[in-house]
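pipeline/complex-builder :: batch 7 item 3
reading input block
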Amino acid sequence: MRIAGIINNERRERMHILSAEQFSPAQIEKIFKRADYFKKNSSTLPGRKKISTIHQGRQLASLFFQPSTRTRLSFETAAVKLGMGLISTENARENSSSTKGESIEDTFRILDGYGYDIIATRHFEVGAAARAAAVCETPIINAGDGKGEHPTQSLLDAYTIYKSHGRLQGLTVVFGGDLRYGRTVRSLSRILSKYKNNHLIFISIPELQVNDDIKGFLASSGTTFEETASVAAALKKADVVYWTRLQAEYLANPSTIPKGFTLNKRLIKNMKEDAIIMHPLPRVDEIDPDVDDDPRAAYFRQAANGLYVRMALLDLVLSEKL
Amino acid sequence: MRIAGIINNERRERMHILSAEQFSPAQIEKIFKRADYFKKNSSTLPGRKKISTIHQGRQLASLFFQPSTRTRLSFETAAVKLGMGLISTENARENSSSTKGESIEDTFRILDGYGYDIIATRHFEVGAAARAAAVCETPIINAGDGKGEHPTQSLLDAYTIYKSHGRLQGLTVVFGGDLRYGRTVRSLSRILSKYKNNHLIFISIPELQVNDDIKGFLASSGTTFEETASVAAALKKADVVYWTRLQAEYLANPSTIPKGFTLNKRLIKNMKEDAIIMHPLPRVDEIDPDVDDDPRAAYFRQAANGLYVRMALLDLVLSEKL
Amino acid sequence: MRIAGIINNERRERMHILSAEQFSPAQIEKIFKRADYFKKNSSTLPGRKKISTIHQGRQLASLFFQPSTRTRLSFETAAVKLGMGLISTENARENSSSTKGESIEDTFRILDGYGYDIIATRHFEVGAAARAAAVCETPIINAGDGKGEHPTQSLLDAYTIYKSHGRLQGLTVVFGGDLRYGRTVRSLSRILSKYKNNHLIFISIPELQVNDDIKGFLASSGTTFEETASVAAALKKADVVYWTRLQAEYLANPSTIPKGFTLNKRLIKNMKEDAIIMHPLPRVDEIDPDVDDDPRAAYFRQAANGLYVRMALLDLVLSEKL
C-alpha cells in the first residue's frame, strides 16, 4: 500500500504494510518466492552467514504498544538474521508518552524522526498502524492493531498452504472454532477469495459463527462456502483444516463448548493424506497433542514459516521491490 | 566531567556525562559540530552505511531503572546507528536486585565489571548517575535521575536553537508553562546563562513560577530576565518560545489553568518570522495541532535532533575527544 | 549433556547445558581455559575487536520467563561481545502465550522453529529447561529454573576459586548463611565433590541448615564436611568463604538472625592471606561495605567472571567443542 503522507512539507509515497488485502496475487507470489529463498538459505550455516549481511547498516524499530512475545520475537529474529540493527520495546503502552495523553500521530511523527528503515508496530487501537503510516516517511508494518488487521499472520498462513499444496486455488478449506472474533479467519478468507475455485466450510457454534461481512465478500468474489455442524464430514473433504480456539470468555455459557471441537487422532483419521491441519497457536486443548506427530499437523511448520515471510517482507520493503 | 573513581584499587579518570552544566561553550561547540556530521550523513544511505561501522565491536548498556520509552529508544538508536552492540533493560527497577535492597553503588560496580564501553542510565533517585560514576571505570551518561538532571535533553534543546539561529547568544527566549517542577527549563536556562546577551521571559501561573535558584544563577551570570503574565506580548518579542505542560497534578486547583496557555494559530500570528516554538514533548493540549504545519513549529525537529546529539556524545566519549 | 530429542521425526543429539553436574572435570577445565582466553582478550581494545567478530551471523535468543536483570544482561553481553545477534525478552511470563495456557513444550517447539543458534532461558518452573531441551534441536542453556538449577552460576563460582587458588581440590570451603534454600550452595558443593581432598564447613542457624541430600552426595563422594556455629574459627581455616543472605522470609522468627552473620573488617582479620570471600550478590547487610576494599573480597570479581564463563560456554557450544 503506497500511502501519501505529508512529511516536512514534502509529499512522499512509501510502501506500508497495513492489511493482507493490499496485496495482489502477483505481489503475494513475489513474497513467497523471497520467503522460499530465505527458508532455503536458513537451513545451512553458509546460507545463514550469507543472508546475515545483506541489510547491515539498516535498522528495524520493533515497537509493541501491546505485548505479544511471539510476534515480536518473530519480527526481530527476521531483522537480526538479515543483519539489521534492532531497537525494541516490548510494552510501550505502559511506559510511554501515550499514557500521558499523547496522540498516536505525535508518537509516530517523533519516531519517524529517528530515521529507522522500517517500523514494525503492534497497537491496541484499531487503525493505529494506518494513522502512523499517514504521518510517517518510514515504512510501517502493521504487526496487529487491536481487533483490526494482522497482515503478516495471514501471509504466513497462505504461505503454509502454498508450501503444502503448491497453489492457493481449487482448495477446500475448513475453518473451525471462533469464526466471529478471530482475526485470522477473516484475513485468510480474504486472501483465499482472491483465488479461483476455493470452497470454504465453516464449523462453529451459534455464538461464534462467521460474520455476514465475510459471507458478503466471499459471495461477491465468487468463492463458495457452507456452514455446517458436522465436524467429521467436513474434515473428510478438507485440503486444509484451520482450527482455532473457542474462547470461553466470548460465550454466554462456557459449558456449551461441544466436545467434538477437540481435534484428536481418532477424529482426523479419515482426512485426506495430503491435507494439512493449521492453527495460529497457542493451542490449549482444542488440538490433542496426539495429533502433533501426524505428518498432516502443520501448525509448528506454520509458526516457523512466519519467520521466512517476515524476512521476505523486510527485505522487499528495504529493497523497494514490492 | 572527569571524575576520579577508585577502581580495583587504582585511581582512574574518565569522562562521565552527568549534568548539562559540566560543558564549556567550547565543548558544546564540539558536540554540535559532531552532531552536524551525523545529521548530514544520516540523510543518505551511503552516509548511513559509512557511520554504521565506526564503533563496531563496542557496546552500549542502556539501563533504565525507570521507564522512559522515548529517551531509551533515542539512545539505543544512536548506538545502533554507530555500529555499537546494544544491551538493554527497560524497567530494571521492577526486575532487578535493587528491589532486594542492593545499593546503587553495588549495582553499578557489578555492571562496571561487564566491560561496556558506555552505560547510559536513567534512575528514579536524584544523584544516582553521579553515585554510579564514582564507582565505575565505564563512562556513565545520565539519561535522567529523578527530578535531577537530564543533560542530553538540554543539549538537544540548545542544538535546536543553534540550528535555527546560528548562535546561542543575543536571544530572547520565552519559557512558558510549568517553570517550577520542569527539569528542562532549569537546565536550558543554565546553558543559556553561559552565553552573552540573552534575555529570558518567564510566563506561568503563581503556583508554577520559576524558582529563586534559577533567578540566582541568571543574576550572577549577568543574564537578564523578566516575569510576565502577558502571553501575547512575550511571544511577539521571542526568538525562541519554549513551551511546556502545566501539569494539573501540581496545582491546588486544576481549574486555575488559564486558557491562554494553549498556543494556537491565532496566538502565534504575531511572532517573528524566524522565531521557533519548542516543546520537550509529549504535548497534550498546550499546543494546538493547528500549529504543527507552521514552519516555526520546531518541536518535532527538536526530538529528531536528540538522536544526532546522542550520536555525537557517544562518539566523542568513545574516541575520548571531549 | 547430550539429550536425544525427536525433531521433525528425526532423532538428533545436541549439547544442552541444563545442570552444573553434567560436566566432567575435563570439560570444566576446557570451559575455564576458554574463559581465560576471553578474559585476556577483553582487557584490551584490539582483543575486544578480535573476539567481536568470531560469531557474527549467529543468534542468541535470551528468553526470560521470569525477570532477572543481572543474569540476563550477563548472557546478552557475552553474546554481543562475541558478535552474535541478540533477540531478547525480559518478562515472557506476563506477556506471552504461556499465560493463555500453552505448554512449555509447545512454547519451545515454536521458538525452536525460529532457528536460533542458542536459547538461554530462565523459567519459573523447576525442570522447564530440561523439558525445553527434550523438544528442541536448538541448544538450550538453563539460566535458572525455579528452585532447580542455575549451572552457569556454579561454573562462575568455581572459576573464581580456580583463578584465585589455581585448583579446585585440597581446599577448605566455608559456606555461610542460607544453606537450605539457596541454589548456589547446593550446586557449588556438587562441583567441589568431583575433586579430591576438599573439606566443607557449613555455618548457619537451625532453620536454614544444609539439607540431608547435600550431606548424602558429599559422603558418597568422599568429601569431608562439618557443621559449626563458630564463625570466627571457621573463617580462620578457610581458603574460600562463600557467604549468602539469611533471608528473613524463610524464618519463623526473623529476629533470630544472629549478629555474627554480618562479615566485617574485624571478623575477617584472622582469615588467611590468600583466602577469598565470595557472595552470589546482591548483598544487603550480610557483608559490611568496609570489607569491599580488602583484597580478599572477591565478590565483584566473581560477578565479572560470569561474563567470561558465559562467553566460553556460548563459544564452546557454537563450535561444538564441549
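note: The domain at 151-303 of chain A is CATH 3.40.50.1370 (Rossmann fold).
queue -> next item
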